[in-house]
Design brief:
Shape: elongated
Strand order of the largest sheet: 1-3-6-5
Structural class: alpha+beta
CATH topology of the largest domain: Nuclear Transport Factor 2, Chain: A
Low-confidence stretches: 18-41
Number of helices: 4
Strand content: 25-35%
Number of strands: 12
Helix content: 25-40%
CATH architecture of the largest domain: Roll
């Protein structure tokens, strides 16, 4: 009887040891997973890996720093860059097309240059939009040119192109069912319609501003 009790005691002891070992192994495994996730979250990341833009056009890219001091460098002068302030582990990098060509923007950790991320940028020649015919251009300028002040016919067309190329939050855009693109600048009140095949249909400043836009 004593022998049986001894055997049971030994078996219970072994079982307890195995459970303890298994729990410790699971805890270590969980710790490794947690570290892996944490390390992964610290990598430099961006919202856009590849960008195509026209000369003079700007695009905003969100850069996630992973808590690191991030710097950048350009491979060419086809673009210019401007970095905003870092808040909550991210900042905005404004990329502007300067001239036709390509450029690689490398973002890297100031303290560890091997930790880096690359953005490939292609800059194309700027598209200059006009009216479908010279007669339409002339008639629209005569009708609406004075709304923009004392400007020339060429300045009127330049303003139209500036509105189309403006990527700021001030400019609202939408696409109609027929394919036309609509633009409205909430600051200046300028309104423009661009046809699907790339011609300006109209460009003026409506009297009722945003209400006119909302009716479109």
């Amino acid at each position: 009887m004593k022998i049986i009790r001894s055997i049971i005691t030994i078996l219970l002891t072994l079982s307890l040891c195995l459970c303890t070992f298994g729990a410790e192994a699971a805890a270590k495994s969980a710790d490794k997973t947690a570290v892996s996730v944490s390390d992964s979250a610290k990598n430099i990341r961006v919202s856009d890996k590849s960008i195509t833009l026209e000369e003079g056009q700007s695009v905003k890219v969100t850069v996630y720093t992973g808590g690191k001091s991030v710097k950048y460098q350009r491979s060419t002068k086809a673009v210019s860059c401007k970095a905003g302030k870092t808040r909550k582990g991210k900042f905005t990098l404004t990329v502007t097309g300067v001239k036709e060509g390509s450029c690689t923007i490398t973002l890297y950790d100031k303290n560890n240059k091997s930790d880096k991320f690359k953005i490939k940028v292609t800059v194309t020649e700027a598209t200059y939009y006009t009216f479908r015919t010279e007669e339409l251009f002339e008639s629209h300028f005569l009708k609406h040119g004075a709304e923009f002040g004392d400007i020339t016919k060429q300045e009127y067309l330049d303003k139209a192109n500036a509105l189309i190329d403006d990527t700021s939050d001030d400019v609202l855009t939408k696409r109609e069912e027929d394919g036309d693109y609509l633009f409205f600048n909430t600051e200046t009140g300028e309104f423009l319609v661009l046809s699907e095949d790339g011609y300006i249909r109209t460009f003026f400043i409506p009297d009722d501003g945003i209400d006119y836009w909302n009716r479109q």
